[in-house]
Amino acid sequence: MKTLRLPVNRSLFIPFIVAGDPSADLTVDLALALQDAGADVLELGVPYSDPLADGPTIQRAAARALAGQMTLPKAIQLVADMRKKGVKIPIIIFTYYNPVLQLGEESFFALAQENGADGVLIPDLPFEESGPLLELSERFGLPLISLVAPTSKQRIEQIASAAQGFLYCVSSLGVTGVRETLPESLGHFLGEVKRHSRVPVVVGFGISTPEQVAMLKDACDGVVVGSALVQKIEQLLERLQTSEEKNAAIAEFASYARSLAAPLREPCSSR
């Protein structure tokens, strides 16, 4: 099994963007900007017409990408384009299960491996039903990243002890989206997961401000930021798609991403 090339002794900053939002070429530009802003891993979301785990921000991004004819194979091929342009950090393909089923599970893993992806994450695949995909992930050397939620309770130990790459903790119930506050019970939940996990434990869903990142950094090994970045892309849409303003808009996006990563780069209290 290929292991993810993760930096040691520092908290991970893992941004999420949607492939094809606002276009394939701009997705590559934004990935490079995120790498420059200090991203340790990139989650590349594949747009889907019925994204059960996603709130309105990511749903709108998916709709824009689908309107631009983005598909699962095209999204995976974007990884190869990113590699050619200089993206060196690990890239995780984040996709719902139905597009994988349509493409064919084996074809999906083969294409991901061929295009230089480093792992896959399928949010609507229950852990109990992941056996066949785990076998394919072993065969193709691509970690299948697991999700664990506060509702997992008795399953936390089982999911955490089998985790590959890193373990994605869902901070709160419901769909993705910017949240003003995080649950008070989150620290206890993360502590429980870390007790059983042999891989880095990262937390996502609702993390949208540098203050929230700072609050979480000692409780976990990294944070995933999605909706806040996708919302920033939405705010910059017009400028990103205007040749005279594109570079300035990408620089503004990178600066925003850097502000979210900044608390992770400050000295930690001992864990």
Structure description:
The chain has 271 residues and is an alpha/beta fold. The chain has one domain: TIM Barrel, CATH 3.20.20. Helix content is 44%, strand content 13%. The protein is built from 12 helices and 8 strands. The protein has helices at 24-36, 56-67, 72-85, 97-103, 105-114, 131-140, 156-161, 186-196, 210-216, 227-235, 237-240, 246-261; strands at 12-18, 42-45, 91-94, 119-121, 144-148, 167-170, 201-204, 222-225. Helix 7 links the parallel strand 5 and strand 6. The chain is globular. The two termini are 29 Å apart. The relative contact order is 0.17.
Summarize the structure.
The protein contains 12 helices and 8 strands. The chain is an alpha/beta fold.
Mean pLDDT: 92
Order of helices and strands: EHEHHEHHEHEHEHEHEHHH
* Contiguous uncertain segments of 5+ residues: none
Strand order of the largest sheet: 1-2-3-4-5-6-7-8
Number of separate strands: 8
How would you name the CATH homologous superfamily?
A: Aldolase class I
The N- and C-terminal alpha carbons lie at a distance of: 29 Å
Major sheet characteristics? 8 strands, parallel, barrel
Q: What's the gyration radius in Å?
A: 17 Å
* CATH architecture designation: Alpha-Beta Barrel
What's the number of domains?
1
Helical coverage, percent range:
40-55%
User: What is the overall number of helices?
Assistant: 12
